[in-house]
């Protein structure tokens, strides 16, 4: 295993990232609050989107198993939260066997992975009859991604398991969201790439660049989890911006040119006293650094809270996205809840350029945010779909 020392001395250009959700109000939710569905709705305009009842265009992606449910793109989306791979299994550990089982179970029930970038940009490109699910993997630890001596990816790491499943099931097309800690204690530092006398610094850094590049090339997303997992609620405004900004800076060194990080995962779900600093701020940089580091994120990930409302729903708040920790039994319970109330589940119509909604819920679409999307009204609703979606992520 190669190792890495953190790259505090590296410099990068200052970047202002476009904020995809500037029109949304920010919900004041803590880590354990109710889902973000409680945010204030925006006024809707009847003139900024068209309404159609025509059949949708089909996604070009492989299909695989689907759910026998009508399209409902105002349904809920699960954002799953994983940490370490191994035994004994608990809140922060998932066994190899159960991680494989999670992929298989979701795939066979018609779920397909998407990234948070796809969600917040409204680019949920999955086949008709399938549902999006976001995999977020926190802390960039050793058993998430490891290269063997022969140069191959360890098949018993999360990336290795994901790749094998994807090869066997091409319809499992998109990737996961990897929330990176550049300077945490080993093994949670850039996937366990710690400093070592045996491995030259240049070689360590090349290993990191290779890993990060591999994830980006294979449709995964890179997320900032701060520099070393500091509790943002205990920091001053300056400290908070340093922890987030230095994390951004240290990750960007290894990313392909032009790659923009759009997602930040709150360590332990703890918000800074000035909540806005969780998604926008400036770190002046180290002494001698000629430019500051500016960060601006479209998504802030909570640590818990359950499923989220659709990004097309006027109640969606990108700066407070709930997650479901995949502790023993948690995923199974949520899937069983959707079996009892299928109208709560987001189901794609197969066309990322349309928003397919039950007729009774069409006024809930945030038309002002999605003027380029065509609204497709669905008359054949699932049983009690209106009531289920009315509850949204509240239930």
Notable traits:
3-stranded parallel beta sheet; 8-stranded parallel beta sheet; alpha/beta; TIM Barrel; 395 residues; disordered N terminus
Question: What is the CATH topology descriptor?
Answer: TIM Barrel
- Name the CATH superfamily assignment: Glycoside hydrolase/deacetylase
The tally of domains stands at: 1
E-strand count? 15
Amount of helix: 10-25%
CATH class category name: Alpha Beta
What order do the SSEs take from the amino end to the carboxyl end, as H and E?
EEEEHEHEHEHEHEEEEEHEEH
Strand content: 15-25%
As an assembly, this protein is single chain
The largest sheet, given as strand count, sense and whether it forms a barrel, is:
8 strands, parallel
Q: What structural category arises from helix and sheet content?
A: alpha/beta
CATH architecture: Alpha-Beta Barrel
How far apart are the termini? 45 Å
Layout of helices and strands:
Elements: E1 51-52, E2 78-82, E3 84-85, E4 93-94, H1 96-108, E5 111-113, H2 116-120, E6 131-138, H3 158-168, E7 177-180, H4 201-217, E8 221-224, H5 237-252, E9 263-265, E10 280-283, E11 293-296, E12 299-305, E13 321-325, H6 330-340, E14 354-358, E15 374-378, H7 385-391
Parallel strand pairs: 1-15, 2-6, 2-13, 3-4, 5-6, 6-7, 7-8, 9-12, 12-13, 14-15
Antiparallel strand pairs: 10-11
Could you characterize the architecture of this molecule?
The protein has 395 residues and is α/β, with parallel strands linked by helices. The chain has one domain (76-378): Glycoside hydrolase/deacetylase (TIM Barrel), CATH 3.20.20. 20% of the residues lie in helices and 16% in strands. Strands 2, 5, 6, 7, 8, 9, 12 and 13 form an eight-stranded parallel beta sheet that branches. Helix 1 runs parallel beside helix 3 (158-168). The termini are far apart. The model is unreliable at 1-57 and 381-388 (pLDDT under 50).
